Amino acid sequence: MCVTPEGDNSLVLSKNCSKSRFEFTPGGDFIYTPTSLCVQPLGGRRDSQPGTKVVLHKICGREENRFQLYTGPLLNVPRQIVFGPKVSPANRPKKVALSILIVKCGSVIDSAAVLVQSVINAKSKYNIDLIALVSKEVQTCRPALKTIGFKVLEKELPLQPEEIRNPQIAREIINDGCCGMWELLKLHVWTLTEYDRVIQLDTDILFHRNFDELFEYDSTLVWTHGGLGGSERMNGGFLVVRPNPSHYDAMVEIIKSGDFRGGQGWRGKCCWVYGGRTIQGILPYYYLYEQVDAHQEVDRCKYNNMVEIDRCMTWNYNNVTSNHFTVCQKPFHCTGAAHNRLCREFQNKWWELSRDVEISLGLSPRQECPSGRYHEINWEHVPAGKVLHNPSLSTHY
Questions:
Q1: Where in the chain does DSSP place strands (E)?
Q2: SS3 288
Q3: Which of 262, 264, 266, 329 is deepest in the core (most CB within 10 A)?
């Protein structure tokens, strides 16, 4: 039996294989050669479910059209990505930083410390400054952030709801996504021009090996796809930015326009997703539709692995550079042992690094979730003068 076209765009199985003439392109299109139409899921959905039909479509080159052909076991399967140039050795970044966003205190501070310990263990050749973007409401955990090694930057929102010219979007943006408008504080990373690169991360990310190459792409934004089966075009928790104030200004102006359309997203193009009115939508719209030559995708299974799609589940731990605790539950939520092998390895590594943090700060390591409850690091008991990460004392490797 062969796949052959039937009618204008349908595909069926047939015993007549004379019309079964397809080819793969380097970009991942699966083309029916007699008509140059491309195979795509019915409806063009990025998050197609099992049982979804495929059809022929005249538009090629889109994300939902990409296919890959494998003849061996599905293990550490890479994504087909066109990589742009990296900077020359002479033009490598001189000053880099890691930034996090803190909108409330709590166990996320412990997770931020574990993230930093994972960065220390990754042995970067760069001296990485630590920045915590906070609002004025975040106060009680500032001493702990400084003990970890973060420079605390208090920032105002890039815009206020009343500046948005669409009253409906002005109301909806307040509670959109995980953090409402507060997630827009991440846009301030584009204004940190004292740095050549800034990697903006959620605190529930963990590095498992060196990630220096992320700083060396010749792009304003390096990114990965997010969750939701791929319908989240960019994940706002993993961004590598070459600061550019003009891009900051442009994105803020787009948000002020309020041109976010139901079922479509910004300017009717992108991205109708959870948090789409803020970071999860404005970044993919701006870089995929307006600054199309200023960004670089990296593989979401190698970097920012959420163990959410089948392809990423097949990766070996030793091939993953960083993971993001989303589908894999956050260790400090104490939900019990994960069923997925890769999730268990990520969670075990988190606890191992957590113990390293406490030992480095002169504390006794805690038990893992005694009686199913998480006990936060007692930051007040850290001896005076102890700091987890001091970039000025770091060693170049």
A1: 2-6, 10-14, 22-24, 30-32, 37-41, 54-57, 96-102, 128-134, 150-154, 197-201, 205-207, 221-223, 238-241, 260-261, 265-266, 270-271, 295-297, 322-324
A2: helix
A3: 266
Contact 169, 282 (CB under 8 A): no
340 closest CA partner among 311, 313, 304: 313
User: Could you tell me the two tokens for 106?
Assistant: 């709590």
Contact 358, 377 (CB under 8 A): yes
| pTM assigned to the model | 0.84
173-215 pLDDT tens trace: 999 988 889 999 999 999 999 999 999 999 999 999 999 999 9
The CA-based angle 296-303-68, given to 5 degrees, is 75
Task: Give bridge partners of residue 221 from the DSSP assignment.
Answer: 241, 295
Look-up of token digits 């390591």: 365
pLDDT band at 361 (very low <50, low <70, confident <90, very high): very high
What residues are paired with 152 via a beta bridge?
Answer: 132
Yes or no: say if 219 and 294 are a contact pair by the CB < 8 Å rule.
yes
Would you tell me which CATH number, out of the four given (3.40.50.880, 3.90.550.10, 1.25.40.10, 3.90.1720.10), belongs to the domain 92-297? 3.90.550.10
The number of residues in the chain equals 397
Tell me the per-residue pLDDT of 280-308, one tens digit each, with 9 for 90 and over.
999 999 999 999 999 999 999 999 999 98
* Phi, psi torsion values for 346, nearest 5 degrees: -65, -45
In the DSSP assignment, the letter for residue 77 is P
Residues 243-283 have pLDDT tens digits of 999 999 999 999 999 999 999 999 999 988 888 999 999 99
